[in-house]
Design goal:
The chain has 10 helices and 2 strands. It has 265 residues and is mostly helical.
Length: 265
């Protein structure tokens, strides 16, 4: 147990000694935080309970088939986005995935294409198309219900609109049902990582989600190989002199370690 106490005692001091960056991608932070709080309340009251019920009553093979179906639609969207970036090989691969899964995979319910190493699943969208051709991300936005985006990536909703089967089905009830199923299935897939995210947020979930989203989008535009790390902003200057770990009074920690080192009576 001795090794546990020193890090726990030191961590607040070390965190206080670190300057956190001021995010210059978020000039609308006060408004964004209010929208984020609204979305969070809506999620806790409606989306999460429905997603938990869906996950509880729906057999895993059925949920996998549902995810595969919507994943097949996203492959078509990804292929179009790759072609618009001039990535002909990747776009052709995406089209091949759609053809195989739609025909041999029973309309996309079975992801047969992923069994072939030469047909990897990719994640491309229209926001990445604009980023590829040099458009900056613009300010970070939190949209009601829809969640985090940047101004540039908001165009992604146009692509999703044209690839969502629920939008183009004449049967209104069926169309709303498919759209709702897509939302619920997506939310259910996030249940397993929710606790991990909240633990990693260190109390400020908004900042954690924002910075993680911006870093991920930046990496996606560069296909996972950005030329340099994304600079979220200039480091904040500390009002006090920088704390040097060597100057910390460790006597309290040493006493605890000495006490724990004593053999039990």
């Amino acid at each position: 147990m001795r090794s546990l106490f020193a890090p726990l005692l030191l961590s607040p001091l070390l965190l206080a000694a670190c300057a956190t960056p001021a995010n210059h991608y978020d000039p609308l932070e006060p408004m964004n935080r209010k929208v984020y709080a609204f979305n969070s309340t809506l999620d806790k009251a409606v989306l999460k309970p429905v997603a938990e019920g869906y996950a509880a009553v729906t057999p895993r093979p059925v949920r996998t088939a549902v995810g595969n179906f919507f994943g097949n639609l996203s492959d078509a969207y990804s292929g179009a986005s790759n072609f618009l970036q001039g990535k002909w090989r990747q776009g052709t691969t995406d089209v091949g995935r759609v053809l195989i899964n739609t025909t041999l995979g029973l309309g996309g319910l079975i992801d047969i294409a992923s069994m072939a190493p030469s047909l990897p699943k990719r994640n491309e969208d229209f926001g990445q198309v604009l980023g590829h051709w040099g458009m900056g991300s613009g300010p970070y936005l939190v949209l009601p219900v829809l969640g985090p985006k940047t101004l540039r990536d908001s165009v992604d909703y146009v692509g999703v609109y044209y690839t969502d089967p629920g939008i183009h089905i004449n049967d209104t009830l069926l169309g709303y049902g498919l759209t709702g199923l897509r939302v619920i299935d997506t939310r259910a897939n996030l249940l397993s990582v929710e606790e991990t995210m909240q633990a990693a947020a260190f109390g400020d979930e908004y900042t954690f989600v924002r910075d993680g989203y911006l870093q991920r989008r930046y990496s996606l535009v560069w296909d996972g190989r950005p030329p340099e790390p994304l600079q979220l902003g200039e480091p904040l200057e500390l009002d006090e002199e920088e704390i040097d770990v060597k100057d910390l009074d460790m006597s309290g920690v040493e006493k605890i370690e000495a006490q724990e080192a004593k053999p039990a009576p």
